[in-house]
Amino acid sequence: MTMTVAMPGRLPRSVMPVRLAILAAVVLAMASVPLWASGGSQRLLVEFMTYVALAQLWNLMAGYAGLISIGQQAFVGLGGYTLFSLAILAGVPPLLALPVAGFVAAIVAWPTALVAFRLSGPYFAIGTWVIAEVYRLGFAQVGALGGGSGISLPVGLVKTISADRGTRDSIIYWITLAACVAVIGCIWALMRSRLGLGLAAIRDDEVAAESAGVVTRRLKLQVYVICAGVTGFLGALIFLQKLRISPEVAFSVNDWTVLVIFMVVIGGIGSIEGPLIGCLLFFVLREQFSDWGSWYMVGLGALSVATMLFARGGLWSLIAPRIGFRLFPVARAAPRRPS
Amino acid sequence: MTDLLNAILQGVLLGGLYALFAAGLSLMFGVMRFVNLAHGDFIVAAAFGALLLVDMLGLPPLLAVVILVPAFAAFGYLGQRLVLNRVMGRDIMPGILLTFGFSVMLQNLMLEGFSANSRRLNAGWLDTASLPLGPFQIGFVPLLMFTTALLVLGGLGLFMSQTNTGRLMRATSDDAQIVGLMGADRRHLFAIATAIASGVVALAGVLMAIKTNFDPSSGSIRLLFAFEAVIMGGLGSLWGTLAGGIILGVAQGLGAAIDPGYQILAGHVVFLIILVLRPQGLFPRQRP
Amino acid sequence: MTNLLSVRNLDAFYGDFQALFGVDLDVEAGEVVALVGANGAGKSTFLASVTGLLPTRPGSILLRGANIAGEPAFRIARAGVAMSPEGRRLFASLSVEENLRLGATGGRKGHWSLEKVQALFPILKEKRRQGASELSGGQQQAVAIGRALMANPDLLLLDEVSLGLAPVVVRDIYESLPAIRAAGTAVIVVEQDIGRATEISDRLYCLQEGRVNLTGRSRQLTRDQIGAAYFGRARSAA
Lengths: 339, 288, 238
What we know:
The complex is a heterotrimer of chains A (339), B (288) and C (238).
Chain A: H1 15-31, H2 33-36, H3 39-64, H4 73-90, H5 94-116, H6 122-139, E1 151-152, H7 155-159, H8 165-192, H9 194-204, H10 206-211, H11 216-242, E2 244-245, H12 247-250, H13 253-267, H14 273-289, H15 294-310, H16 314-323
Antiparallel strand pairs in A: 1-2
Helix pairs in contact in A: 3-8, 3-11, 3-13, 3-14, 4-5, 4-6, 4-11, 5-11, 8-9, 8-11, 13-14, 14-16
Chain B: H1 2-32, H2 39-56, H3 61-82, H4 93-114, E1 130-133, E2 136-139, H5 140-162, H6 164-175, H7 186-211, H8 219-233, H9 238-258, H10 263-277
Chain C: E1 5-14, E2 17-27, E3 32-36, H1 43-51, E4 61-63, E5 66-67, H2 73-79, E6 81-84, H3 96-103, H4 114-120, H5 122-126, H6 137-149, E7 155-159, H7 167-174, H8 177-182, E8 186-190, H9 194-200, E9 203-208, E10 211-217, H10 223-231, H11 233-237
Parallel strand pairs in C: 3-8, 3-9, 6-7, 7-8
Antiparallel strand pairs in C: 1-2, 1-4, 4-5, 9-10
C-alpha cells in the first residue's frame, strides 16, 4: 500500500541552497539555546539530540546495511565505562576521554563483529544481544569500577570541565549538538555518495549486491565498526552528564536499543527524516503519557507492530508523498512491501 | 569432586528445560526462516498462566498443562494465520521488528497485570521430592523436565518423519518455493509449525514456573538461552538442540559452582566460544 | 467441449521485466504438447505462470473452463496440474519415497499410486530409502516425474527433463510417456531438442522472445519451419 520512493528529481536543483540555508538556520538556533533556555529544557534537548544520533546510527545499520542489532547498548556502555575508567583510574580529563571512549568502542567492535557476523538475519540480532549481555555481566565483575552497583565520577574530575554547573551543561550541550549534526551530515553525505548506493544495494538485495561487485561483508563490517565508535562516543557523553554509571543502566537494552528501534521504526526506516520524526514523536508522547507507566510502552510496541503491518516505511512514508518535499534527499527507496 | 559432578548432573537436567525453550524456536526457524523475538516472553506468559490457574484457581499443575498447551497452540495457529504470515518473505526485517514490538508489549502487559515481583509456582510435594542416586539427589522436577524434553523431542522427530505434514515441513526447509506445487498451503503449514512451537512453549513455561523464579521482564533471557541452545546444537537439528541445551545447562552449573555471579556469564561465554570454533553448531542438520 | 487448458493472451512479468507477451496456448485432455524455444524464450516462465509460481492476470489461464490465473500454487496443484520443475528441485533432506509421497499431498484420486509409480520407474523402489540428493541425475529426474504423477494430475508439466542427462538416460525417461498418456494425463513437454520434441508430441508451440511464433501438428511441421521459428529473426538475417 505505501511505497515511498525518494523524489530527488521532483524539485529543481536551485532548491538545494534554500534547503541548506534552512538547515543552517536550524543548527544556529539550536546552538543559541544555552544562551537563553533554562537548564531543564537544555538537558531535555541534550537527551533528544543524543537519541536522534543513536537513532540515525541504528538506521544506518538496519535501514541501509541490513544489520539489525539489538546490542547497541554494548557500545553505549563501553563508551561510558571507558570514560569512567580513564578518568577514575588514570586521571584523564573527561573531555579528553570522550574521543578516546569512541575509539575504544570501535576497536572492541572489530572482534565483536567477527563473532556476531558468523550469524545472519534474525540470529545476528539475538547474537549482538548476547554479546552486550556478556559486557554487562563482565563489567559487573570489575570491582575497581564499583562492580554491580556502579560508581560515580569524582567531583574533582567533573570540575576540570568547569567549576560552574551552568557552563558545564552548556559545554556538554554544544558537544552533543556538534555530534548530532555531524552524524546526520555524515550519513547524508554518505547516502549521496557511491558508497551509499552500495549500501542501498545491500539493503535491497544482498545477493544481487554481491554479484554487482559491492563487497558486502567488508562494507557491513565498516559500517558496524564506525557506528559502534560513534555510539561509544555518545555513551561516554551520556554518562558524563549522568555523572554515575552502573552495568544495569550502561548496558540497558531498553534504554539504548529498544527505544531507539521504536523511534526508527515508527518514524520510518531507511530515511534520514524518519528517525528524526520518530524521536520527536517519542519525546512528545513521553511528555504526554509518562504517567501511564508500562501502558506507555505497550502503546509504543503496538505502534511499531502496526507500522510493520500497515506502513513499513513508517510515518515519514505517509508524510513524504503528501508534501512532496524531502529535507535530506538521498534517492533511496523505503523498504518495499512484498507482493 | 562430588560437588563438581553434582553441578554437571544438575546442569544436564537443566539442559532439558533449555531444550524445551529451544525446540519451538528451532522448529519455526527450520520451517519458515523466521525467529519470534517474543519467544521468551511467551514462555513467561505461559508461566504466569500456570500461576493463575494453579495458585489462584487451585487447579492441579497437570490440569494447567492440559489447558495451557492447547490454548497456546490455538493462539499460535491464529497468530500465524492472521498476523505473522503477513510479514513472511524474503525481507526478514518486518518479522524481526514486529515480534520485537510484541515482546515489549507482552512484557509490559504482564508487568501491568502481575507487578514486577518475582514469582514461583508452588507444586506441592513435587518441589522437594527427589531420588537418591549414589551420592547425589536427583530432584523430581529436574527429572521431569529432562524426560519431558526427551518425549517432546522424540515426538517431534516422529512427527517430522512419519506424518505428511511433518515431511512437508522438512521439505519447506529444503525448498520452500515449490512446496506449493505439492498441493500444500504454505500459510496453513506455517501456522501448524507455530501452533506446535507454541504448545511446546506452554509446556516449557509451566515447567519453568515450577523450577525457577520468574518475573515479567525475564522473557528476554529465556530467548537468549533458547537461541544459544539452537545455535550450539546446530540449526535444524532436533537432538542437537538437546545437546545445545545440555551444554548451556552444564556451563551455567559449573559457572555457578565457581561463583554465583558467573552462572549466566559462563553460559554466554561457552556459547561464544562454540560460535567462533564451530559456527555450524555441534550437530549440523543431516538427513534423519 | 472445453479444452483442458486454455491460455489466452497471457502476459508475465518479473518485476518491471516482461517475459511473456500475449501467449495463447491450448491443451486437450490426454494430449502431449511440446513447447520449444531458445534459452530465455519464456518457456519456464510459461510453466511458472500455469502452476501459479508466478502471479498472473485472472482470466488468462483456464483449467477445464475455470480460471486458475492468480490463484496460489497449491490450489492449482489440487485442481490437477503437476510439474517436474527445471533442475528437478527434489527435497534434498528427504528420502526418495518421502519425496514421492509428498506429491500425493493434494489427495486427488486416480490411476497413480506409490506402487504404480515404482512399477513405472523400478529404480525408485530399489532406492526408496536413499536420500534424494544421493541419486544420479537420471534417477533424480525419475523421482521428480514420479512425484508429480503421485498427484494424479490431469495435466503434467515436464520442464527440461533431458537437461544434463546422457542420451540413453533421456530415452529411458521419455519411454515412460506412453504409460503416462495411457492413464489419461495430458502433458506439456518443454524441450530444447527439436527432433525429440516433434517425435513425442501431438502438437508443438514455439516460443521466441516471449511470443508464440509457430504452432501446429508436430508431424506436419518441418524441421526448417521449427528451426526458423526457434532462432527467429537472428536466423533469417543470417
